[in-house]
User: Fold ABC transporter ATP-binding protein from Chromobacterium alticapitis.
Amino acid sequence: MSELKIEKLGKRFGEHRVLDDLTLTVEQGSLLALLGPSGSGKTTLLRLLCGFERCDAGSIRIGGQLVSSPQ
Assistant:
């Protein structure tokens, strides 16, 4: 398992900003839970991590390797 690093992640659906400037680091061996109200971006974040959606801003790295960016 590698370190997960999310930097300045952003995602919009039309004019609705779902994720805005999200930065998060999960160290190797750590456990993380995503909690929040309906519509707060939990599923969108997971879809970005899995590659089902493309981010509009920022980057996702796993083990130092870039796995998602706007380009």
